[in-house]
User: What shape does this take?
Amino acid sequence: MAVKVCDRCGALDKIENHHKKHKADGGSDGDDNLRALCMGCHDYQYAIDATLKVIGIEEARLKVLYKRLEVIEQENPPLLVKERGYTSYWDTYKKGIPSFADKWRCSSVFEYVLEETPHD
Assistant: This one.
């Protein structure tokens, strides 16, 4: 039986297997997906993973908000605002006005991320 050593700090006791890609996300129990971590480093790694997940969600939300800003700008050039007033992002949807907004409208942050197209 091989002695397990923490990959992060070198500890020899309370070693646990950490899934690099969590099983809930489709990760396996294969050796290539496991990392030996002591209990403290394992807790640390979970905290890092959770924080990175939140950062990813917040980045996705920011992308949606920036896209909404683009739509608002596109739908409200000065001359149109002078003629008809301001049109909100959601007004274009409710009124059925075909617009740039239609390309980017989505029901959730996650739908936007999945359908996101590359841009400059």
Q: What stands out?
A: The chain has one domain: 15-115. Residues 15-115 form one domain. The helical segments are 39-75, 78-84, 89-94, 100-104, 109-115. Confidence is low (pLDDT under 50) at residues 104-120.
